[in-house]
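In the laboratory, one determines a bound structure by crystallizing the protein with its ligand and collecting diffraction data. In a computational setting the workflow is compressed into a single prediction: the sequence and the ligand go in, and a structural description comes out. We illustrate the idea with coenzyme A.
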Amino acid sequence: MAVARLSKLHGTHEAEFGMIVSDRYQGQGLGTRLLDCLLTVGRQEHLDHISAEILCENRAMQRVCEKVGFQLHRTSEADVLKAAIVL
Ligand SMILES: CC(C)(COP(=O)(O)OP(=O)(O)OC[C@H]1O[C@@H](n2cnc3c(N)ncnc32)[C@H](O)[C@@H]1OP(=O)(O)O)[C@@H](O)C(=O)NCCC(=O)NCCS
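The predicted complex, in structure-token form:
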């Protein structure tokens, strides 16, 4: 149905996330709830930051990130944004 993963960067208090929701379950709030759960886990694990790189064309992922409080930043790659949140 869906998978969300938080990967802690060795020796830091930072993690990167990845997420996928099956096509038939998209648009029902599942991605937003899963990303919110990852933020809760990150706080429990005393992380400082969580981030992910997102293609500029991936408007759904950008929207989900914005809904739970991530900031979106440009990167050196024209077609890639970085979503980041301070916990
Ligand atoms: C990105 C993804 C995880 C979102 O999951 P989801 O369960 O559909 O997310 P939600 O239903 O919680 O929210 C989706 C939001 O994006 C919006 N959205 C969807 N398509 C959009 C588009 N083309 N443009 C703008 N907003 C869009 C929806 O309207 C919704 O926002 P709203 O609640 O304000 O209406 C899912 O689309 C997915 O698995 N995509 C493929 C994998 C991927 O891109 N992973 C991310 C890599 S880091």
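Strands lie at 2-8, 14-21, 49-55, 71-74, 80-86. Keep in mind that any predicted model is a hypothesis to be tested, not a measurement.
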